[in-house]
Amino acid sequence: MSVDWTEVYRSTFPDLVRFLHRKVWDLERAQDLAQEAFVRALRHEPQKPRAWLFQVASNLARDEARTAIRRKRHLTLLKSETEDRQQAIPDPAHELLERERMGHVREALDALSERDREVLLLWDAGQSYSEIARQAELAVGAVGTTLARARRRLAEAFAQEEQIDVAR
Amino acid sequence: MSHADEGALHAYLDGALDELPSGEGQAIREHLAACPECVARLEEEQRIREEAIAILAGPLMTQVELPPFEELRLRAEATSPPKISRSSRIYRMGWAASVLLAIGAGWGLRGGAPSPGEQSTTTGFAERVPAGVVASAVSEGQPVVAVIDGDGPLLEDLARPVFLQEEEGADVVGVVLAARDVAREDVAARDVAAIEFAAVDVVATDAETDAETLQRRLEGELVAPSLEGKELLDFRATAAQGSRLGDAFPSFRVAAVPVLNAEVSEEVRDERPLRSGRTVVTSASRSTAGGAFSNGDALERRRERRDSGRRGGDEGPLVVPEFEVIVVEAIEQGAAAGGTRALQWLTQADTLELLHLPEGVEPSDLSPLQDEGIAELVVLRDGLWLVMRARRRSVQELEGLLERLDANR
Questions:
Q1: Separation in Å, CA of B177 to nearest CA in chain A
Q2: Does A115 share its domain with A77?
Q3: How many Å lie between the alpha carbon of A136 and the closest alpha carbon of chain B?
Q4: For residue B357, what are the contacts with CB-CB under 8 A and spacing of at least 6?
């Protein structure tokens, strides 16, 4: 069975970037990693490209998190992301709010356990329960339970973040 | 049916009921149609679900530009190695397969728990154990399948460099096994299935979980999760405090298995020297690259063992720095066991296999190398045989890798 890679690329790339963005927290890097995942996929030609891509993306993000280089890059990339956003959102006050909110989202996600976060982000990127189950090594029946817990914790942690901010 | 649990409600809200095992989805639908209580809960869960979606949507949803696909294809082709033939692929997975087979055979042979007094000795290690991780030990043909449950502190502890070691009088020892990522694209699912269908012998959990919660969690994870007759291992037990699990699980025998992590290792090492013994199949997930298996640690361990005159097959892997580690596992071949195998990704989707063979195991004891596309370098280092194998790389390149390995020591 041959895979239509152009179609896989068109349908999966944005989801992959979305998934990676919440892991590495800079858009440009997320796009780089998504591309790297695709390059690897084109070499390996896996049978289930979408599931494979998410697995590799997850691994890449984890490796990425380990490298100290990332921290250095992060500063530069934050800057460039700010520039990007300035083009999209000219209102500086609005931009500040958006950035603050992004910080809260990040903190809230960090409050989850690694697996809960992974499952939530996979779901958010449009993966099915079966795909999530495979990647997170869960039974399909456990995906709902994990998502229920992850969503609740995310909402709680996010509310807490906002509250801390109000208190400041 | 009893009330729908949260997981069922979220599966319903996510439109994923049809993905659940046969009949479950329909049962949930029918129950919801007849149970106002669950419908009320459904509304609450719906609120949480929408809140989570809104949090994740927000400003992060940035327009993603699609770079031209042709660029990626060119990049892939520019660095693409020649296709690996089926036979060599099988060869490359040979070691992994032998480990899985060993586990499989052990499961078949196993009858009940090991008898008291029988020694099951292991020195294993693991790092970065994923939540709900599957743990397993195979000792003298008597495997123990264990599940480590929980998250938070328990797994954080396990996430550090870990030695699992037998407690005096305990019959079983858990060695963390995450048999995945050997060949990411096609082996993972099979391993998980094998584990799901295996009887669970040991369940490790934390002191905060009661038996009912644990049972419920396991039902989500495993096919036959009954806790009846199981032994509970307490990885949180300390020498000073012992196990606290007895209160939560009065009907089970609880064995304390101290997890030696970086913080306490020195102290416990003095109290409980590692016993010499047969090496068992140990394996850790690929994320062991994070430093737990650093060469420094491995060497330190080996030095200690040598100084104390102890022998053990599990010498800890040495890996070439900066290359991603796919899997680290102990080697077992027939009755001869010992040594460690580390598989790493090199550039260009190539892999490097490093076999560390302890004293008494010669490289010639291993299966003969049949693939001419693989270069092999065999060196003797500190009384250990080091076998390096990589595909399509000249011996000179392997020597380069060896230098990097040595430079890191």
A1: 13
A2: no
A3: 9
A4: B331, B338, B339, B363, B365, B366, B384, B385, B386, B387
Q: Do A102 and B59 touch (CB under 8 A)?
A: yes
A149 touches chain B (CB under 8 A): yes
Looking at residue A61, which CATH number applies to its domain? 1.10.1740
Q: Is the pLDDT of residue B83 over 70?
A: no
Residues in chain A: 168
3-state class (DSSP) for residue B224: coil
Number of structural domains chain A divides into:
2
Q: Tell the burial category of A2 from Cβ atoms under 10 Å away from its Cβ (0-12, 13-18, 19+).
A: exposed
Partners of B353 in the β-ladder:
B343, B389
Query: DSSP character for B148?
Result: E
Closest CA to B313 of B385, B409, B389: B385
Size of interface A-B (CB pairs under 8 A): 182
A43-68: pLDDT as tens digits: 777 778 888 888 888 877 876 664 43
Report CA Rg, chain B. 24
Q: B134: number of CA atoms within 13 Å, CB side? A: 27
Answer yes or no: are the C-beta atoms of A120 and A154 closer than 8 Å. yes
- pLDDT digit string, tens, across residues A145-155: 999 999 999 99
Least confident span in A127-141, B13-27, B76-90, B259-273: B259-273
Domain that holds residue A18: 1-88
DSSP helix/strand/coil, B178:
coil
- B69 contacts on A by Cβ (under 8 Å): 5-6, 9-10
- Answer with the residue of higher pLDDT: B209 or B177: B209
- Same domain for A78 and A104, yes or no, is no
